[in-house]
Write the structure tokens for this entry.
Amino acid sequence: MRITIVGAGIVGLATAHALLDEGHAVTLVDPGGKTGRPTDGNAGWIAHTDIMPLASPKVWRNLPRWLTDPLGPLSIRPGYLPALAPWLLRFVQASSPGRIAASMEAIRSINAEALPAWRALLDSLSLSGHLREKGLLTVWRDRGAFTASAELFDRQRAYGIAVEALGPEDVARLEPALNNVGAAVLYPEMCHVSDPAVLAADLLRLALARGAVHVAAQAVAVTFSDNAVHVRTDGEAADLVADRVVIAAGIWSRPLAEQLGDRIPLDTERGYNATFPAGTFRLERPVMYEGEGFVTSPLDSGDRVGGAVEFAGIEAPPNHRRTEAVVQRLKRFLPHLDDMRPAKRWMGFRPSIPDSLPVIGPASADRRIVYAFGHGHHGLTQAAVTAGMAAALISGRPGPVSPKPFTAQRFSR
Ligand SMILES: Cc1cc2nc3c(=O)[nH]c(=O)nc-3n(C[C@H](O)[C@H](O)[C@H](O)COP(=O)(O)OP(=O)(O)OC[C@H]3O[C@@H](n4cnc5c(N)ncnc54)[C@H](O)[C@@H]3O)c2cc1C
């Protein structure tokens, strides 16, 4: 089949390879150069062990403290509140114990296949060198907050996820540079990638080498007739005709889905990070600083600290005082950073759905159009498994994961 993929971010690129594997003729439409494309600036984690939706008791517990600090781990720009209201309402609905359990089970189902799917994709392209298998260290300053997470560890273990509680001497042995750690656990199976932007560039290069075509233009509309699906663009190739279309344009997917009659509560959790020269942090592996709203990653291109969630839409300029605040908070754990300044600061748009589940499934208007967007905090993690699911939906066969919890139609009920 002729298949057009709208968006060549990490999800669109992984999907291109899954479709090329099945012998389809693939066209990727992407203008390139979008500011804040999260594919390039994320933390690089394959976080398949992270199964908790954002609408979790932990977030509600911390919310009053976070919201009173405009530079804290989660903030909402007051002017953006009216636009965000429908998303927030869905978020509240997604926070009931039953809905949290359902989201957690769906995240578990997709995350369980996430790493095998990445291994298969990277192996098939001789890109396995991008995968780093160093585990993830999660640390707490306060033992009380750590104790409150005991139930989560039990659930993770029940799902077969390895969680190792560590004593102070273990932490000192694993990561001697870390200070002020009251408690810690190790997720030994968690992985990260060399650098997300380099991985994406390699996936694009190899997709083109395998015969995919890249149209450097913006898709402005997706329409359909009996015989074909059309992607209208603002470029020279103004009408791309295909048998199937995949919409994988991250946060920018919302208007395209809306034109097709699907009102998806897709908004952006803006995230910030700072990258220092490689080796600055003196940390061997990714670290999650629980309750602090940031993480660190040792990437080939530098040591990255980032995270934080800001609701302010896609138009407002970045507020890098948030980045500075994250760097200041990191210094409590890594005092040797003193007055060091990052080489690079960045803000990007997580494409987020209130129940923390991506949208993977056919458009209501026509089953020949498949959605693959809204992966929030887990777009890198879930890209390869999403690709397998999208390819299966297009071929009309069962995929690696049941797509039921991820359908776009869950919002019209
Ligand atoms: C600070 C931060 C840290 C993160 N860390 C992690 C992590 O460690 N692990 C993890 O799994 N996830 C992480 N994420 C989330 C992850 O980065 C995203 O979920 C993921 O990048 C989404 O990928 P995507 O391909 O769906 O969208 P995008 O990366 O947004 O790509 C969408 C593509 O669509 C193109 N596009 C947009 N509009 C159009 C149009 N109209 N026509 C054609 N093309 C179009 C854009 O140019 C872009 O290339 C993080 C995010 C942030 C912000």
Summary: The chain has a mean pLDDT of 95. The chain has 13 helices and 21 strands. The two ends are 32 Å apart (CA to CA). The CA atoms of residues 204 and 219 lie 18 Å apart.
